[in-house]
Amino acid sequence: MELDDIFDEDEIKKLKKVIGLKESDDPTDAFINVTNAALSEYKQMLLGMGLPSRADEILQYRLYYLIKHYFKEKMPTEPQVSSMFQLTPQKSRSIIRSVITRFRFDLENEVENTLKTTVSKAKWNEQKEEFHIVIRSYNIVDQLNRIIENEAPDLDPVRKVQVQARTYRISEDSCIVLCRALGISCPTKT
């Protein structure tokens, strides 16, 4: 069965946009991964393995399966979840936070990989003498700050850089603590 058998051209264009693909990208692998997530959800239902009953729980389970099968090895951002589920950014943030809490052991690798990737992209800002980093998810900021609170509560948390949409600042000491906790090399000061 081909995608053309299921979706018409306009639907494929809309779906590409919703899941963040370029118009020139082949959506086949992405749709297979989304289908695998749906199959996992149906498997749980058909085998009677604790079906969620509230709408929020259904969204949480659906997002959990998408993380496992579609986003693979990383956590989605609020804009990605908003686009896929047609939710407000605040609702997406809440759903992601609930999924991280509910499935914390099952999503440990995805959260850790996302944190490692995020911190490793930090760039030294010579003028401010701190690291700057673009973070597209408030939940990731919360997770990073939780590490700092646990490891070195006397250090500065990750904070928003004023007048820049999703740019955050990390003090050098806090960055060292994060890198040590995540088991990665610290970004260079260049």
General description of the model:
It contains 9 helices and 4 strands. It has 190 residues and is of the alpha+beta class. The chain folds into 2 domains: 3-106, no CATH class; 113-182. It has a 4-stranded antiparallel beta sheet with strand order 1-2-4-3. A hairpin with a 4-residue loop joins strand 1 and strand 2 (130-134). Helix 3 (28-46) crosses helix 4 and helix 7 runs antiparallel to helix 9.
What is the element layout, followed by pairings?
Blueprint: H1 3-6, H2 9-19, H3 28-46, H4 55-71, H5 78-85, H6 89-102, H7 108-120, E1 123-125, E2 130-134, H8 138-151, E3 159-160, E4 167-170, H9 172-182
Antiparallel strand pairs: 1-2, 2-4, 3-4
Pick out its properties:
2 domains, 58% helix, 4 strands, 7% strand, 4-stranded antiparallel sheet, 190 residues, alpha+beta
Average pLDDT, all residues: 91
Q: How would a textbook summarize the main sheet?
A: 4 strands, antiparallel
Number of domains: 2
**SSE order, one letter for each helix or strand:** HHHHHHHEEHEEH
Low-confidence stretches: none
How far apart the termini lie comes to: 51 Å
Structural class: alpha+beta
Strand order of the largest sheet: 1-2-4-3
- The fraction of residues assigned to DSSP E strands is 5-15%
Q: Whole-number radius of gyration?
A: 19 Å
Tell me the total number of β-strands: 4
Number of helices: 9
The portion of residues assigned to helices is 55-70%
C-alpha geometry? globular
